[in-house]
Amino acid sequence: MWGLVESGSITKIINKPKGMVIGDVQYSRNIFSSRWTNAEREAIGIYEVEFDNTNKKDEKWYINTNQSFAFAGGKITASYGSATAKAHADTLWTQQDSDDGLLPSDKSVGDVKVEGLKTKLIRTVKAQAAGILQDTDWYIVRKADASTAVPSAITNHRAAVRTKCAEMETAITNASDTPALETLYTYTTTDGVQSRPLGELPTLES
């Protein structure tokens, strides 16, 4: 990405090489190739954009601003403003929404208007647990069909999955805000082993 600087101000952001007129001169797209040095491009006002991602945060948890571009010190910098944390709790339909005529006919005051991160994360955990349990459901079906006992290892495994799922749901529910949720999911490495505060659902192999 490049920018065109004229009279000390950025007048155009260029996302991909293309021919263009600068001043009264028509330049081909070759000005963006290795045939031109940065110094040669800068002499005609073309500067490569440098990216400052200091304020950029994980989009799973935050809403980043659009990039803004600034020219100073002989370079163009693209940077982000302060990111906004995504809502961790559900937003509900209010009486004010109803009074303003915004409440859908199939909704009531107090119903969920926009799901927060907690609701979405808990749904994902439940789905992951269900997927793990599905792998051993056939033992349960066989017992119902043929009265064949379910091995204790399988029974214990299924109980462990449900227990851990409940623990994870509680941890998510109890998180005070979005940064706390992010911390639950952030992996760290200790003695070569990666782990996260939320933990993992057990697998049969483990």
User: How many β-strands, per DSSP?
Assistant: 13
Q: Spans with pLDDT under 50 lasting ≥5 residues? A: none
* Largest sheet descriptor: 5 strands, mixed
Structural class: alpha+beta
| Strand residue percentage | 15-25%
Which percent bin holds the helix content? 25-40%
Roughly how many Å is the radius of gyration?
Answer: 28 Å
The SSE string, one letter per element, is EEEEHEEEEEEHEHHHHEE
Instruction: Give the strand order, joined by hyphens, for the main sheet.
Output: 2-1-5-8-7
Q: What's the total helix number? A: 6
Overall 3D shape? elongated
Mean pLDDT: 96
What number of domains?
3
Alpha carbon gap, first and last residue: 48 Å
What is the structure about, briefly put?
The chain has 206 residues and is an alpha+beta fold.
